[in-house]
Design a protein that fits this description.
Elements: H1 40-51, E1 60-64, H2 70-77, E2 82-87, H3 90-102, E3 108-111, H4 118-122, E4 126-130, H5 136-151, E5 155-160, E6 171-180, H6 183-186, E7 190-198
Parallel strand pairs: 1-2, 1-4, 2-3, 4-5
Antiparallel strand pairs: 5-7, 6-7
Helix pairs in contact: 1-2
């Protein structure tokens, strides 16, 4: 990976966009193949964890909307005691497991909607979320889930390159990276991407 050369992934081969792999169509009954690409938020999270392994070393980690699994793999490489990777798309869970094996680490993949992760969140010291604020409906669910998990005591780290539905008011930026990305995917060759930590709840939104 350009920003994270310590990690290699099985990804789509060639300069194609997300919906090129679905015949140019969006199907509501089948998630787009997000797992076939590496996204800026996941790369930034992975770089941050490998540069700061103390964030996850010896801790339990849950990576939600894992996609290709890059952030989960980085957490495992950084010394997390257990890593779970959740994604609503079973193909993504399978891809994350395949990528973890290719990098010589073990993660547990969970093919489920984020609302089904309550038990996993109870057991997680750190929750990772890369590029999850890409639509209004998904962003609202993710924000509610992450805030609830923070109230349970989890440390929340989000990677986001300024997606349109990112609720910045809920977060504080702790790092920033210039991430190489596919022009076919993002219509640019780099994205300035933040790693954000959720603000502690104080009754103010």
């Amino acid at each position: 990976m350009p920003l994270v050369p310590e990690i290699s992934l099985h990804l789509v081969d060639g300069p194609v966009g997300l919906f090129d792999l679905t015949g140019g169509e969006f199907r509501s009954d089948e998630p787009p193949p997000f797992w076939a690409f590496v996204w800026a938020g996941g790369q930034a999270l992975a770089r941050h964890l490998l540069d700061h392994p103390e964030l996850v070393a010896g801790r339990t980690v849950l990576d939600i909307a894992t996609g290709s699994g890059i952030a989960a793999i980085a957490a495992a490489k950084a010394g997390a005691s257990r890593v779970q990777a959740l994604d609503v798309d079973p193909a993504s869970a399978a891809a994350a497991a395949r990528n973890a094996a290719a990098n010589g680490v073990v993660i547990t993949t969970i093919p489920a909607e984020v609302s089904a992760a309550t038990v996993a969140a109870d057991q997680a010291d750190v929750i990772l979320a890369g590029d999850v604020f890409y639509s209004r409906s998904v962003a609202d669910r993710m924000a509610a889930y992450l805030r609830a998990a923070a109230r349970m005591g989890a440390q929340i780290l989000v990677g986001d390159p300024g997606r349109g539905y990112f609720p910045e008011r809920l977060f504080v930026r702790v790092a920033e990276y210039v991430v190489p990305v596919s022009a076919a995917l993002e219509e640019t060759e780099t994205l300035v991407t933040g790693v954000w930590e959720i603000r502690t709840t104080s009754g103010r939104e």
